[in-house]
Amino acid sequence: MKKYLAIASILLVAPLLSAQQAPSLDALKQEALVETDKMQTFTQQMVDQIFSYSELGFQEFETSKYVTGIVEKNGFEIEKGIAGIPTAWVATYGSGKPVIAFITDEDCIPRASQKPGVAYHDPLIEGAPGHGEGHNSGMAVNVTAALVLKKQMDKYHLAGTIKIFPGIAEELVATKAFYVRAGYFKDVDIVLGTHVGDEFSTSYSTGKGIWSGVVSVQYFFHGKAAHAAFAPWDGRSALDAVELMDVAWDFNREHLRLSQRSHRVIINGGEQPNVVPSEAAVWYYFRELDYPHIKSLYELGNTIADSAAKSTGTTVDHKLVGSAWPPFYNKVIAEVQQKNIEAVGMPTWTDADQTLAKAVQKEIGKNATGLKEKIEPLSAPAEHLNGGASDDVGDISWNVPMVYLFYPANIPELPGHSWVNAIAMATPIAHKGSTAGAKVQAMTALDFLLKPELVRQAWDYFRNVQTKQAKYESFLSPDDKPAIELNTEKMQKFLPQLKKLYFDPSKYKTYLEQLGITYPTVRANP
Q1: Structure pTM?
Q2: Pair 381, 207: CB distance under 8 Å
Q3: CATH no. for residue 101?
Q4: Which domain-ending residue is among 304, 323, 342?
């Protein structure tokens, strides 16, 4: 009997002993730093692998297959094709509260192909897409952090749920509003977003005032074909309608607020000059600082399109390709994250890293200041909002408390959306910056996993400060669907060449080694 009582006592006490022996939050963070450092090769390989895929928005098939394969192998449950988007997915691990979601982008930039580590324009494939925004690094950051967290959750029986989302077609601002509409963030407590940058920083509220919201709209004009010389009077030019819309929009610019940004490309201008174009199309981005003003630009664009059609005897319809609210980030999460940024610190740059950075800056006519070596402080939001860039994480940020970590994986003073921005993105600069970002993501997630009061405070700020007056309204109508057909032809054109250049980590340590590139490669007389 005494034997059975002793066994029973041991069984009852064991969980208590285990709980008492569980590390403190600080100890868990230190362990996360060590584990992330152990994964540096894994992180580097992810950065290089996704760089080599170079997939445009809605065509991220290889990237999504690669990333989901990794997390599924590590025990995450995968739901594919979310929100009606073939390349979109969500990976989930754990159970219970809090639910912490990681999100970052995957797509690349048209015509941004570039050899990494080469400080001048030297495309891998002429005219092909490339990672001229650095989105190849973000998934390495988040997956590394998630795998470190999973290991600790298993080891110490930590409660909570981790989710990983991809930013599909972010360059088209074309998916995250659909994620929200489909309800994928209804059970999420906080979102830790991340994006490549040239600095190590986070922000709250409207941050530096550089964010705009946007609607992305394509206008399709329909006319009547005719011989452009023999019987032009029998035709109705859809291209005339496009040009008339563009002229009318430009005449309206002087009456719009200084904070607006609007730009366009003609995506169909007809087939050949001797045929009156029966079909033509133009694609607009309308940007402003808040929902009412964005909506006003959208309505003005529709009015001008309708008027251009009536003036030319054509008809018009339009498609909302994507939309994004201006992001608004959570102060509570940002303050926690900033402490972790300060604890991690900037990567240690080598002379080779700085040589590449300064050569690139000189190549494009900028001051050769090199890579930043100090972290950015957490500052109060800018008093004056200038607007500019857009990101469809904005829609998520107005539904769940969220922050956006910028990790130092690229070179300062670059133009963005360009081959120039691809130069560093499969080099030690991106590798080291991504490891630093992963450390901060893991540490910040641990703060919220182990301190439920922080989750409550984040939601208090969300409800009583951020959304006290402004309430989220989607730009999407019930009939709007993701534009999953975009970029299909472009990717099909370059895919055979791209496949020949996919990174093979079984044969090479780095993509630079596979390509035979000496790091760094600069002009003989820079």
Answers
A1: 0.94
A2: yes
A3: 3.40.630.10
A4: 323
